[in-house]
Amino acid sequence: MCNLYSNTIPQETMRRLFDVKPENDQLGNAQPLTAIFPKGDAPIITLDADGERRLEVSHWGFVLPQKSKVTGEPIQPKAVNNARDDKLLTSRFWKTSFETRRCLVPATSFCEAKGKKPATYYWFGLKGEDARPPFVFAGVWRFFKGQYGQEKRSLVTSSIITTKPNELVRDVHPDRMPVILSPENLEVWLHGSPEDAFPLIAPFPSEQMTIHKRGEALKSDAG
């Protein structure tokens, strides 16, 4: 699973890398994000009604409303920020989004923790000439409009798809890792049929990845 990642890609670079027209950039004045947690704001690339790429802010995690067991009143909802690959085609929670609302989630690293008291945090990313080469998670998105705890909100929400881990990640998290898409597969993920997109869900080659840093209390990839 993935509960923490970073995206420090400059806004103009994201537009260029992911072929987003300036008028389709809805991020405003985006800043580098060295620690994105569930329920946080996260840039994603979606398709608009005309099939053009759109860069927008999402709430990381599909909203799952909750009520207090004591009062029955709405409380802060859960954010379902990971979508398991083995649930995409069978779960009503995920199926329609996978079939019709896939997205790209830009990133520069992601974190997994190992052990407890204290945990060691491992920041994974891609090898390359840059300190933090950009890459893309496979994602899904959907609209949420309704009660969010004590207030009503309208949100674009997103979730990152996970699969079995490769050799590098497995030593830290033996069950799951986020799906990283190769550049040549971005178009298929956005525009392809579910039958074409699903085979792209696979562990990213471990030989193309690295651990940028590790240590205790490293809940940000800053510095």
Characterise this structure.
InterPro entries: SRAP, SRAP-like. It comes from Halocynthiibacter halioticoli. The protein has 223 residues and is mainly beta. It is built from five helices and 15 strands. The strands form three sheets. Strands 3, 4, 7, 8, 11, 12, 13 and 14 form an eight-stranded mixed β-sheet that branches. A five-stranded antiparallel β-sheet has the order 2-1-9-10-15, with no helix packed on it. A hairpin with a 6-residue loop joins strand 5 and strand 6. It starts with a strand and ends in a 7-residue tail after the last strand.
Could you give the topology of this structure?
Elements: E1 5-7, H1 11-17, E2 33-36, E3 41-47, E4 53-60, E5 62-67, E6 74-80, E7 82-84, H2 95-100, E8 102-107, E9 109-114, E10 120-126, E11 135-148, E12 151-163, H3 167-170, E13 177-178, E14 180-181, H4 186-191, H5 194-197, E15 209-216
